[in-house]
Amino acid sequence: MKDPYRYFRVEARELLDQLGKGLLDLEKGERPREMVTQLLRLAHTLKGAARVVKQPAIAEHAHAIEGVLQPFRDTAAEVQADAIDDILRHLDQIAEGIGALSPAEPKAVAEVGVPRVDAVAPREEESFRTVRTEVEEIDTLVDGVSEAFAKLNALRKTSEAVERAGHLAELLTAQLAARVGKGQVPVVAARADRAHTMAEELRAIVGGLERSLGPACDRMAR
Questions:
Q1: pLDDT tens string for the chain (222 positions)?
Q2: Distance CA 60, CA 39 (A)
Q3: What does the chain look like in DSSP terms, one character per residue?
Q4: Which of 68, 74, 151, 217 is deepest in the core (most CB within 10 A)?
Q5: Calpha distance 210→178 (Å, rounded)
Q6: How far, in Å, CA of 83 to CA of 85, rounded?
Q7: Contacts for 199 with CB less than 8 Å, ≥ 6 apart
Q8: Structure pTM?
């Protein structure tokens, strides 16, 4: 029987391992804001993958981890010990859920004597069909990975361009903010204030694009 969770288990265990390592770094106080952002991305990716394979319990635990980390996303404050303990409990539950998806091992049946030839032949034919099917699936997977890497490279270039645009938007906003209301006639002051407002809006839009492209690149890379 085909195992519907074999790819999910590989991805989920990798994400779980990265979450555990990131949580350990977070517990040591290393780059709290950066680590929280990374852990949020990992938890979000795991939640999406679990929903795809219809594993709501795993998805709910991943969502709960997001809920614990969200208050620390935009602050440099250290994540509290009770929050880390809460995340660890969810990681344990996710690990148990992933383990439960492992295919059951076939029970060995002791038989007396030599198997009949007519019983062995179908098993050999079935094995050959299984190998051929798996090879075809691997070919499809390799083609998909190649296409994903091509798209990923293009997406990374776009992400880098958006990041540069974000830096320019921040510089523009800072320069306009320094000019607003400094001994200017009303008409000029109004124009400067409007330009500063538009620059702020531009910076917010570019910032949103950066936050969207980052997780997208991470998912495609995996």
A1: 577 888 888 899 999 999 999 888 888 877 778 888 899 999 999 999 999 889 999 999 999 999 999 988 877 778 888 889 999 999 999 999 998 988 765 554 444 444 444 444 445 445 545 555 556 677 677 777 767 777 777 777 777 777 778 777 777 777 777 666 555 556 666 776 777 778 778 878 877 777 777 777 777 776
A2: 16
A3: ---TTHHHHHHHHHHHHHHHHHHHHHHTTSSHHHHHHHHHHHHHHHHHHHHHTT-HHHHHHHHHHHHHHGGGTT--SPPPHHHHHHHHHHHHHHHHHHHTTSPPPPPP---SSPPPHHHHHHHHHHHHHHHHHHHHHHHHHHHHHHHHHHHHHHHHHHHHHHHHHHHHHHHHHHHHHHHTTSS--HHHHHHHHHHHHHHHHHHHHHHHHHHHHHHHHHHHH-
A4: 68
A5: 26
A6: 5
A7: 169, 172, 173, 176
A8: 0.48
Amino acid (one-letter) located at 109: V
Structure tokens at 52: 């795809």
Which of 129, 142, 58 shows the shortest CA–CA distance to 96? 58
Cα distance between residue 189 and residue 187, in whole Å:
5
Amino acid at 99: G
Residues 190-206: b if buried by 16+ CB within 10 A, e if exposed: eebbebbeebeebbeeb
